[in-house]
Amino acid sequence: MTLLSTTVPHLQAAWDAHPYLLLSAPLVLFVFVSNVKSYFKLRHFDGPFWAHFTYFWFVGRVFRAKMLDTLQELSDKYGPICRIGPNDLLLGDFDEVVRINGVRSPYTKSDWYTTIRFDVDGGDSVVSLMDTGEHDVRKAKLIKGYEGRGKGQDKGWMDKVVDKQLVELVRLLREKYVSKGRMINWTDVMRYFSVDVMVEALMGEAWGDLRTDSDIHKFFSMSDYSVPYIHTVGSWGSLRWLTSSWWFIRKAGPKVTDDHGLGKFIALAKEEVSKRFKDPESKKGDMLHDWVAQGLTSRECELDIVLGVIAGADTVAVPMRTIFLYLITSPLVYNKLKDEITTAIKTGAISEPITNQQALKLPYMQAVIHEGLRMMPISAFGFPKRVPPEGDMVCGQHVPGGTDIFPNNLAIQRSKKVFGDDVDVYRPERWLIENTQGPEHRSLMVRHIEVIFGHGRWQCPGRMLAWVELNKVFVELLRNFDFQVVNPRDPWKLAVYSSVTVHDFWVNAVEARQE
């Protein structure tokens, strides 16, 4: 009683003098205990000092859009696996990344995926759907349409979809820019091309961004501010539960009453899906037609159409811009590719427009594309997977269950063992079969590139359409025009969160010289 009688007055005096200090004490204690617990969970993994205790280090790097340099530095300093957060590891080992993402892997999605939720009514796209079984069922219904094997899609369906927009692209460049000697904002025209291809493939009719040379629905204006947000918040494990909650999405998410941006597109998707379910045969051959036939609900169709444009538009535009910059700033490469295209035209090896199958038979163009993807992956680091409860051995070290593992795509594409000592040099010649260690080695190189699009059950369903776009666009551009960068000293504004964003990429073009 004596101790209690003397302690209570002291506590009362402290409360009267500093009430907020006493109230904050439990919070401080909780944070301290949590940090200590987090540190010990992954203490056997090297990494930046502050990454052992807090997300501030990782979030700060992502927010500043400097992940291209950061990922290289981490790989060089700590090797194939390192710690980047209290519960997060970064993995740059190709074989381990492939294993973790395999079809039969016990790994699941990290709750990072919930940051891609956008539906105010509580629905999930195939990407934000967290249950693995439900994900597999949904993806199985989506995949035929994405790969051009769906109802009403003939063998040349992807060629036809891309060709239609290639005609618009060439027309736009020739009539509005080349003939008038005007500079071209390559950031915009590649965006317009990729989004019109994606919308055409999904719903049978493009928005017309290329035709009007404008961001009709302000879709990319939305993308410019949402990409930094998604990747920054996604890197902050403690915040995901809030920003991905249905309460938060209802308060801050897109509304179908919006007159632009994602809300506007959701409204357009709802309208088109409603028409199809009333008359499924009103349009044939696009992805939506097949999805209805596969038995997806109207809500599932709406959500995955919106996801398709979000994931497939600007994402494909990124390699079209980055490969193009490497190409037009490398005269030897540029001229060699032009010669290959010119020879193919003269010998009748390619049609106009070129088909995907014809493009696959142009070895140097394939080398240019693969090398560009290697130098600047579509995503610098991939989406994280969660270690199963029993834990796992990764790179010879035990990883506790519940840990999130991010694939370091950049490090995988900089493997000296696979690509040679000059991995930081843009050199398409490394992909020519005579310069490799044989077909098996080149196949290994290709598999390294393909992991950029995910692997196994988590592989991007739109990768085939993306490849068709890449295989065709550079041939048609160089067949018709010659290009140069406007400002060689500062050609673009580059920002790398996980996704890569490019702005103010200006080029000049003239009609190609006919030989």
UniProtKB/TrEMBL annotation:
Heme binds at residue 460. InterPro entries: Cyt_P450 (IPR001128), Cyt_P450_E_grp-I (IPR002401), Cyt_P450_sf (IPR036396), Cytochrome_P450_monoxygenase (IPR050121). Its cofactor is heme. The keyword Transcription regulation does not apply. Pfam families: p450. GO terms for molecular function: heme binding; iron ion binding; monooxygenase activity; oxidoreductase activity, acting on paired donors, with incorporation or reduction of molecular oxygen. It comes from the Eukaryota. Keywords: Heme, Iron, Metal-binding, Monooxygenase, Oxidoreductase. SUPFAM superfamilies: Cytochrome P450. Belongs to the cytochrome P450 family. PANTHER family: CYTOCHROME P450 (PTHR24305), CYTOCHROME P450 MONOOXYGENASE (PTHR24305:SF77). This is Cytochrome P450 E-class, group I. The lineage of its organism: Eukaryota, Fungi, Dikarya, Ascomycota, Pezizomycotina.
